[in-house]
Amino acid sequence: ASKFTQQVGYGNAVGFLVNKGIPMEPPQGSSSETQEDVNPITGQYVKEEKLPDLKDMTDEEKEREAERLFVLFERLKKTGIIDVENPIAKAMQESQGRFEEIQSDSDSD
Questions:
Q1: Looking at the whole model, is its pTM more than 0.70?
Q2: Mean pLDDT of 41-67
Q3: Average pLDDT over residues 89-99
Q4: Alpha-carbon distance 14 to 23, whole Å?
Q5: Which of 9, 41, 91, 104 has its CA 20 to 30 A from that of 33?
Q6: Number of Cβ within a 10 Å radius of residue 24
Q7: What is the pLDDT of residue 25?
Q8: Would you place residue 60 in the very low, low, confident or very high pLDDT band (cuts 50, 70, 90)?
Q9: CB atoms < 10 A from the CB of 6, how many?
């Protein structure tokens, strides 16, 4: 039971344990010296997570990854899970009338 509460947290585990008839005392202190850090989002051990290295990616791979993320955010927006907005479009909407496009000298040639 103590390992279970370390992995999912006391608050999350206590209800389950009480329903199963397993008594559990609240933790007295942090044993962070012996416990491994767990990413609460992925559930993986932090030291075992492999983050993508952008230096090793080609420009084509970076573009594909950006497109994939764009599609994922569009799906989240359509389902209403989160409200995301394109930062460039947002800046343009907020700055209407404040900026005007100027022609450069090379455009007049």
A1: no
A2: 79
A3: 74
A4: 9
A5: 41
A6: 15
A7: 75
A8: very high
A9: 16
